[in-house]
Amino acid sequence: MEKVNWKVTGMSCTNCALSIDKFLKEKGMEEVKVNFIGGDVSFNLPEGTNKITIQKGIHDLGYQVKGWEDLGKSGKKLFKSHLQRFAFCAVFTVPLMLHMIPGIHIHWLMNPYLQLGLTIPVFILGMDFFGRSGLKSLLKGVPNMNVLIALGALSSFIYSLYGTVTGQADQYLFYETTATIITLVFLGYWMEDKSVEQTQIALNKLAKSQKTMANMIAYDNEQNEHIFPVESTSLKTGDLLLIRTGEAVPMDCKILSGEVAVDESIITGESIPVDKKVKDILIGGSTIVNGTVKAYVTAVGEDSVLGNILKMVKNAQTEKPPVQLLADKISAVFVPVVVGIALLTFALNYTIGEQSFTPSLMRSIAVLVIACPCAMGLATPAAIAVGLGRAARNGVLFKNTKTLELFKDIQQVVFDKTGTLTTGQFAIAAFELTEAGKALGEADCKRIAYSLEKYSMHPLAKAIAQAWKTKDEIRFSDITEEKGLGINATDKEGNTYSASSYKNIAHLTNNTNHNIYLVKNNTLLASIDLQDEIRPEAATMIKSLQQKGIKTILLSGDLQVKCDYVASQLSIDEVFAEQSPAEKLAKIEALNLISPTAMVGDGINDAPALAKATVGVSLSDAAHIAVQSAEVVLMNHGVKNLTLALGLGKHTYLTIQQNLFWALIYNVVAIPVAAFGFLSPTIGALVMGLSDVVLAINSVRLNFKKVH
């Protein structure tokens, strides 16, 4: 089953997305996700299904799959944007509105046939856009906002045309209402589009950084080096590149020669340059601040770090948090309900209200054009787009929008110690041999330690393997790693070896104060102590959490004495030390029962606990399984932005609540006001357009407001 990702243009509200969603599911597509703000549509295409048929179906709904026009399946449109449509309509609408300005009386503009002539171009364009879209949505069973606009404009036009034809123009002349509704709604749609674009600005910056020029290195038959420019999008894995000071890294690369200082702020949000040398990875989208390197491409497109970030954020945008589900249900029935209210408004005003036909019709039209189902649909996606975008720009990745909502309830945060609260950059502080170890020799003991630890991803193991690296390593026939306990191996002669924590060798010694114990054939050879430093940002982060009333907990497999030291330095509220992965999992389950809990970790042994926590948070340089198990990834090589992640989660949810409240109150107040005749259709059309802009502006505030 093929995974399809398309960009679809023309969607303007939740009902548009619901129409496409319904169509794709009816056609048998699976895992359908539609994001009307970004225009992203993804689904699993069953085998044997024709993509062209699906594209044509979406086109028939009134939307356009990007690239479909390139295939020549659709004629060129006269107007490509709402601004162009507004400008065209305004040329004809302004003269119609002149008589409404006090002190201006141009008698020939009152001629009904002249007004009809000025209205017809606007009416045709309006019906081509609103009428066509509204009719298609009705046929698909998910009526959209354009149904209301088309009904309002059509009603006033037919009413005015009847007066013109029957010679009663002085009583029936409302051509300016038709033209103004269409013109102002186009203006409102354009303002809405521009406002919504602002919600995508952070992601657009990330996307643009994927497209740059690269200096590709090639060799001729005589092995002479040639350098020529190519677009980064044409690069392939293995291509050789020259990257100089001031240039962007086009794709993920590994350095072959040279040293550089790199600005990785596009990924991490941290502007301080990072030093890189041979064999280090350069992240695509980062910038060389100083130095020149030759490197080869390791990943391109969606496989690159930046590509994965964009993919993750886009996937998160298409996820609907629980708070959106009610809004979607309301949006799905909103248009039929408003049409019903408009008909009821006309009937009550014309009968019980003792109004004549004309004011009754104007009030019902005002109800149609002032109602705004878009506001209900825009409330959540707009806030999420800004929240996820700001998070990504600052090196915080949310894998789904449910996490944003869950963060508002977090009352306690659990931290692993090594590599999370500490840097994970260890140095060997002590190496103590037993009598058996002395007999074997220090060099052989180090060789055993290196041969074992080179197979582990644990930070302690990495430090030992780096310090005692040798070419004369032991070749094992079997090697296994027990999470949280250590690594065990057997050589070809049947000798057994282990480098493990105290729990694994408690039967061999009573001394519990060392990090790693080296054993051969059930005989203790040596103990190894390593020293780690606390992350410089950890103290500030812990204090910030505590000021918010969040309880902090240290949960580690390390020794009690080492955990107590870190906890005392950071003023952590509670400590659970010497915990196995199973015990960590059980502890998280117990803490979850007390109150919603976030878990921050970076190791393989943290993966089960990260998955079990209310919200799992992993560091970007963590073990792959830890990153996969977490719902939030911190990309700045530390816990610096944990408070930002929590703050963005809470404030994004708060913004969603504010948007939904505004959308609900707007419609609850505006519709009755229009029904009772306090607003004309013209003012209603303008206010409707502005209602969505208010939501977008409130959402964009998330880019700037303090959320820590």
Key structural traits:
elongated; 708 residues; 26 strands; single chain; alpha+beta; 19% strand; 7-stranded mixed β-sheet; 26 helices; 6-stranded antiparallel β-sheet
Structure description:
By secondary structure, the chain is of the alpha+beta class. 49% of the residues lie in helices and 19% in strands. A seven-stranded mixed beta sheet has the order 14-26-25-24-15-22-23, sandwiched between helices. Strands 6-5-7-13-8-11 form a six-stranded antiparallel beta sheet, with no helix packed on it. Strands 16-21-20-19-18-17 form a six-stranded antiparallel beta sheet. Strand 22 (551-555), helix 21 and strand 23 (574-576) form a beta-alpha-beta unit. Helix 3 runs antiparallel to helix 4, helix 7 (175-199) runs parallel beside helix 26 (681-700) and helix 11 runs antiparallel to helix 13 (373-393). Mean pLDDT is 82; it is low at 70-74.
Topology, pairings included?
Elements (H helix, E strand, L loop, with lengths): L1 E8 L4 H13 L3 E6 L4 E6 L5 H10 L3 E2 L16 H16 L14 H28 L5 H21 L3 H4 L2 H25 L1 H8 L4 E7 L5 E7 L8 E4 L8 E6 L2 E4 L1 H4 L5 E3 L4 E2 L4 E5 L1 E7 L5 H14 L3 H29 L6 H14 L2 H21 L2 E3 L2 H6 L5 E4 L1 H5 L5 E7 L1 H6 L1 H12 L5 H9 L8 E7 L3 E6 L4 E5 L1 H4 L10 E5 L2 E9 L6 H10 L3 E5 L4 H11 L3 E3 L4 H14 L2 E5 L5 H6 L2 E5 L4 H6 L2 E3 L7 H34 L5 H20 L8
Helix pairs in contact: 3-4, 3-7, 4-5, 4-7, 5-7, 5-12, 7-26, 8-13, 10-13, 11-12, 11-13, 11-25, 12-25, 12-26, 13-25, 13-26, 17-18, 25-26
